[in-house]
Structures are given as C-alpha cells and as structure tokens.
TrEMBL record:
Organism (species): Rhodobacter ferrooxidans
Domain of life: Bacteria
GO molecular function, one term: pyridoxal phosphate binding
Broad EC category: lyase
Domain Tryptophan synthase beta chain-like PALP: 100-332
Gene3D superfamilies membership: 3.40.50.1100, Threonine synthase, N-terminal domain (3.90.1380.10)
Protein name, UniProt field: Threonine synthase
Reactions that this protein is recorded to catalyse: O-phospho-L-homoserine + H2O = L-threonine + phosphate
Annotated TM spans: none
Enzyme nomenclature, EC number: 4.2.3.1
Amino acid sequence: MRYISTRGQAPALSFGEAMMTGLARDGGLYVPETVPVLPAAEIAALAGLSYEETAFRVMRPFLGDTFTDAEFRRLIAAAYAGFDHAARAPLVQIGPNHFVLELFHGPTLAFKDFAMQIIGQMMQAALAKSGQRITIVGATSGDTGSAAIEAFRGLKNIDVVILFPHGRVSEVQRRQMTTPTESNVHALAMEGDFDDCQARLKDMFNDFAFRDGVHLAGVNSINWARVLAQVVYYFYSAVALGAPGRAVSFTVPTGNFGDIFAGYIARKMGLPIEKLVIATNQNDILDRALRTGDHRTNGVKPSISPSMDIQVSSNFERALFDAYGRDGAAVAAVMDEMKSGGFRISQGALQSLRETFASGRCSEEETSATIAATLAATGEVLCPHSAVAVKVAADHLGPVPMITLATAHPAKFPDAVQAACGIRPALPPHMADLYDRPERVTRVPNDLCALQALIRERIAL
Ligand SMILES: *Cc1c(COP(=O)(O)O)cnc(C)c1O
C-alpha cells in the first residue's frame, strides 16, 4: 500500500512514512494510491465484534508491513483501554430511524481521542524502533489539542506543541491544554482564529530547514493516520444497524472535513452509505460550496460550536482530489486560487461531490433550540456541535437509517448547554478538579518567525 500526494509532486510513501511525515512536501495531503475494498462477507462478519477487533480488521489493509499483526493488536488494545464505555462508541436512538453515535467516551471527551490515542501508540512504537526524536506541532480549534496532549504527555522522545486561537476555545478546552504539568507539553495561545493557526502550521511544514531541523511531525487531520482511525466507527455503527444488508446515511458536524472524509473512505471500501451529510454552523463555507459551486471564505464568526469555527477545511482537498479525477495539477491550481479567497468548483467535480455528499447549516438559535428539544424528547443532552448535526440530519431523514455523529461531551461546553436547556452538565470524576489546577500557557503573535524561534528554544531545554 503506497500513499500519494493530492498535488502530485511529492514522493510516494509507505503508511509508516506518511504517518511520520504529515503534510506532503509539495503542500498536498497524502491519500492511499488505491482504497482496498472489503467484500460484503467480510463486512457482514464484523457484526457483534468488539470495537478493537473491528478496528484491526478495518485498518489492517492500509498498514502494509509497518507493524506485525500481533503488534498492531497490542497498540489498538492500549489505545482504547482508557475509554469509559465498554462499547467505546455506543449508538443511542433519538427518533424514528434516527440514531446518535456517541463518540465522546474517550479521555478528553471528544471524538478526537479515537484517532489520537491510536496514533500516539503507533508513533511511539515507530520511534522506539528508529530511536528518533520528534516535535509534534498541532493547530487546534479546541479538541485536537487536548486529545494530542493526552496521547503524548510525558513521553521521552516527543515534544508536543499546540497552537490554539486565543480567546476562542471554551474554558474546559483551554484548561485541558494548559493544566498538564509534563515538561514536554507546550500550549501556545495565538492571536487570530483557527484558520490562522492552521496556516502557520502549514508554513512550518513548508519551511524545510525548520521542518527537518526540529524533526517536525503533525497530528492534525492532514495526517492520514488520523483519518484512517476514524473510518472504523463508520463500519462499527453501520454494521450494528444491519449493514451491509441495509444501507445507512451519516450526518457529521464538520470543521476541517477530516471526520466526514473518513466516512467517504468507508464508502469507498464498500460500506453501503447512501449519503454523507455535511453539517456546518454559521461558518458555512462547505454548505455554500456544495449548493452553489463557489468555495469562498467570508471570515470566521465565533460560535457556540467553536470546534467547527473554520473556513479553510484542509481535508476538503482530499475530496477535491478524487472529484477532479485525481489530477494533482488541477488540485494545486485551485488551492493556489484559494490563497486569494476562493475558487469555483468545476461542474464535473461538483457533480461528483454531490453523488456522495449532501449538506446543511444550522444557526446559533437553531443550535440552542435543538439542544432543548432533544433533551425534552429523549433525555439526551447534546453538545452544541452534535446539536448542529442533529438539526441538519432532521432535514435529511428518509427511509434509510440516519446516524448522526455526537462529537463531544456536553460538559466541554457547559455554558452554551446550560443557556440552551437549563442543565449544567458535570465533568466526569477524572476531570472534576480541572477548574482548580494551575494553568501554564504562552501568548504568541500570529508570526511565523516568532513561533519558530520559540519552538526551537523550547525543545532545546
Ligand atoms: C474537531 C471537531 C469537529 C469537526 O471535525 P472535523 O474532522 O474537523 O471536520 C466537530 N465537533 C467537535 C466537537 C470537534 O472537536
């Protein structure tokens, strides 16, 4: 299994290499050269298996010889042992033919743990073999940062540096990043929004002297291994509802397009998914792009679902690569246009995207109203991101079961949830003293040179 860049100009890599590399050197993202298809009988045989065994069978075809089977099974077991629900990803029915997939039972209470915990295990295992040391730099709209810190804190040969937009994450999200005491954890509060953080991160990857000098590695969803780990729960939940004998649809609260792109890969692997519905908050570039063909930013407006306050969704490039017939030069050209604000998706590419994806947006008022209405109708307390998706899913219900992804625990956003429904969701016991722990954070400007100097200084310690 080889991985190629969406811009066609970087060397093809193995799984292990793509995982340690992150962004391709031509600025593109790595994708598998071909996606392995699981025969219907193999999908049917997933019925009733544990999450861990499902993960092994779904991910194994993508790994080549990076790990032995026994080793990979051990890494998976370690990755999910810290989840506080035996099912790992339980399904809850909230209406006729409408199900919520709870993805917030990991250590940092958001779906990011599903990928970050296993990528942490895999990177450690790879580094133990090579003896290398690396600097992980991540940009976060709130949840990636805490999940990455949780996965890498205290490890000897890894520094983890997280850039988050100052003042634009929830207090729980911020404290999860600023209270760990391990010296290899560096939380940086940057001026600007998430798109700025992600742009500076990409700048660091595109500065090869810096990149090679600090042994930069990335755990944002530009990293293929992140996406792959998320493919698993699409299979796990669809099979629980009768796939491959019965098709399902998914609605996914979308920011950087990594989560829903994992659903797209599951569909290419043969899982019968009728539609993948992109749910956006008021930062609705993807919904507008899919409706009109015009992919154009109009600035990030802070919302009560901050992890989706994104206008430049990195992983959309992976979907465009396929929609443009895997033409790396065409992708490079539209990404270049994006630097000046936007581009028009070609008619052919748009048609191709619409075969798989549908979309909808949810306003701030609708988000709050959905939290209240879902609580009243079902007793389920949704986080604002999950509420965005439940609202959009409701507009796309049909004969096929709808699975809506619940991406975070409501206790990560207690103010928004309480304002919407009157209930203040409590943190689980292992985080109960979060508000009492001292914070450690460095304010940084939106400036590449300053960031690079700070990172060099920190990792020299
Ligand atoms: C990251 C995140 C999202 C968006 O996921 P993408 O993969 O970036 O599209 C949605 N909800 C929550 C709670 C998140 O943390």
